Amino acid sequence: MLIEDIQNICKKLPHVTEDIKWESHLCFCVGEKIFIITSPDESPVSASFKVDDEDFAELRERDGFQPAPYLARYKWIHVDNINRFSKKQWEEYLGKAYELVKAKIPARKRKELGIF
Protein backbone atom coordinates (compact mmCIF):
# COMPACT_ATOMS: atom_id res chain seq x y z
CA MET A 1 0.00 0.00 0.00
CA LEU A 2 1.11 3.47 -0.85
CA ILE A 3 -0.31 6.76 0.34
CA GLU A 4 -1.61 7.20 -3.21
CA ASP A 5 -3.73 4.08 -2.73
CA ILE A 6 -5.31 5.63 0.36
CA GLN A 7 -5.90 8.84 -1.60
CA ASN A 8 -7.59 6.94 -4.43
CA ILE A 9 -9.87 5.07 -2.03
CA CYS A 10 -10.87 8.30 -0.28
CA LYS A 11 -11.41 10.23 -3.51
CA LYS A 12 -13.95 7.64 -4.66
CA LEU A 13 -16.19 8.54 -1.71
CA PRO A 14 -18.69 11.37 -2.36
CA HIS A 15 -17.96 14.89 -1.11
CA VAL A 16 -14.48 14.04 0.22
CA THR A 17 -11.88 16.77 0.46
CA GLU A 18 -8.22 16.45 1.31
CA ASP A 19 -6.15 18.92 3.23
CA ILE A 20 -2.75 19.25 4.88
CA LYS A 21 -3.13 19.95 8.59
CA TRP A 22 -0.56 20.43 11.35
CA GLU A 23 2.14 21.07 8.71
CA SER A 24 2.57 17.50 7.45
CA HIS A 25 -0.56 15.40 7.99
CA LEU A 26 -2.64 14.53 4.94
CA CYS A 27 -6.26 14.46 6.10
CA PHE A 28 -9.42 13.37 4.33
CA CYS A 29 -12.70 14.97 5.32
CA VAL A 30 -16.41 14.85 4.63
CA GLY A 31 -18.37 17.99 5.48
CA GLU A 32 -15.16 19.50 6.87
CA LYS A 33 -14.90 16.67 9.42
CA ILE A 34 -11.83 14.42 9.32
CA PHE A 35 -12.27 10.67 8.97
CA ILE A 36 -8.61 9.70 8.37
CA ILE A 37 -5.31 11.39 9.22
CA THR A 38 -2.15 10.15 7.53
CA SER A 39 1.52 10.90 8.02
CA PRO A 40 2.95 10.50 4.51
CA ASP A 41 6.36 11.90 5.44
CA GLU A 42 6.97 9.16 8.01
CA SER A 43 8.60 5.89 7.12
CA PRO A 44 6.65 3.70 7.28
CA VAL A 45 3.52 5.76 6.58
CA SER A 46 1.12 5.70 9.52
CA ALA A 47 -2.55 6.63 9.80
CA SER A 48 -5.33 7.23 12.31
CA PHE A 49 -8.98 6.72 11.43
CA LYS A 50 -12.46 6.61 12.96
CA VAL A 51 -13.95 3.20 13.82
CA ASP A 52 -17.05 1.84 15.52
CA ASP A 53 -17.01 0.33 19.02
CA GLU A 54 -16.64 -3.25 17.80
CA ASP A 55 -13.72 -2.50 15.46
CA PHE A 56 -12.06 -0.36 18.14
CA ALA A 57 -12.07 -3.29 20.57
CA GLU A 58 -10.81 -5.73 17.93
CA LEU A 59 -8.14 -3.60 16.24
CA ARG A 60 -6.52 -2.35 19.43
CA GLU A 61 -5.53 -5.96 20.19
CA ARG A 62 -3.60 -6.39 16.92
CA ASP A 63 0.12 -5.75 16.52
CA GLY A 64 0.82 -2.29 15.14
CA PHE A 65 -2.57 -0.87 16.14
CA GLN A 66 -3.31 1.25 19.18
CA PRO A 67 -5.88 3.79 20.33
CA ALA A 68 -5.02 7.04 18.55
CA PRO A 69 -3.37 9.62 20.81
CA TYR A 70 -5.79 12.45 21.74
CA LEU A 71 -8.62 10.81 19.76
CA ALA A 72 -9.07 7.41 21.41
CA ARG A 73 -12.05 8.56 23.46
CA TYR A 74 -13.82 9.20 20.14
CA LYS A 75 -12.96 5.67 18.93
CA TRP A 76 -10.04 6.44 16.64
CA ILE A 77 -7.36 3.83 15.93
CA HIS A 78 -3.74 4.50 14.96
CA VAL A 79 -1.88 2.06 12.71
CA ASP A 80 1.91 2.33 12.64
CA ASN A 81 2.19 1.16 9.02
CA ILE A 82 -0.51 1.40 6.36
CA ASN A 83 0.72 -1.91 4.93
CA ARG A 84 -0.83 -3.77 7.86
CA PHE A 85 -4.09 -3.67 5.86
CA SER A 86 -4.69 -4.88 2.32
CA LYS A 87 -6.34 -2.57 -0.20
CA LYS A 88 -9.64 -4.40 0.33
CA GLN A 89 -9.40 -3.93 4.11
CA TRP A 90 -8.62 -0.22 3.67
CA GLU A 91 -11.65 0.14 1.41
CA GLU A 92 -13.81 -1.47 4.09
CA TYR A 93 -12.46 0.51 7.05
CA LEU A 94 -12.34 3.84 5.23
CA GLY A 95 -15.89 3.32 3.98
CA LYS A 96 -16.98 2.75 7.58
CA ALA A 97 -14.97 5.73 8.87
CA TYR A 98 -16.52 7.94 6.20
CA GLU A 99 -20.07 6.82 7.10
CA LEU A 100 -19.48 7.24 10.85
CA VAL A 101 -18.21 10.79 10.42
CA LYS A 102 -20.82 11.71 7.80
CA ALA A 103 -23.59 10.58 10.18
CA LYS A 104 -22.39 13.12 12.77
CA ILE A 105 -22.66 16.10 10.41
CA PRO A 106 -25.70 18.18 11.41
CA ALA A 107 -28.67 17.82 9.03
CA ARG A 108 -28.58 21.50 8.09
CA LYS A 109 -24.89 21.28 7.12
CA ARG A 110 -25.48 18.04 5.15
CA LYS A 111 -28.27 19.74 3.23
CA GLU A 112 -26.08 22.80 2.53
CA LEU A 113 -23.31 20.58 1.18
CA GLY A 114 -25.63 18.21 -0.69
CA ILE A 115 -24.57 15.27 1.48
CA PHE A 116 -27.30 12.72 2.15
Mean pLDDT: 93
**Rg computed from alpha carbons, rounded to a whole number of angstroms:** 14 Å
Distance between the termini: 30 Å
Give the class from helix and strand content and strand pairing: alpha+beta
Low-confidence stretches: none
Helix-strand sequence: HEEEEHEEHH
Bulk shape: globular
Strand order of the largest sheet: 1-2-3-4-6-5
Named CATH architecture: Alpha-Beta Complex
Give structural notes.
The chain is built from 4 helices and 6 strands. By secondary structure, it is α+β, with helices and mostly antiparallel strands. A 6-stranded antiparallel beta sheet has the order 1-2-3-4-6-5.
Itemize the secondary structure elements and their pairings.
Layout: H1 3-11, E1 16-21, E2 25-30, E3 33-39, E4 46-50, H2 53-59, E5 65-67, E6 76-79, H3 87-103, H4 107-113
Antiparallel strand pairs: 1-2, 2-3, 3-4, 4-6, 5-6
Helix pairs in contact: 1-3
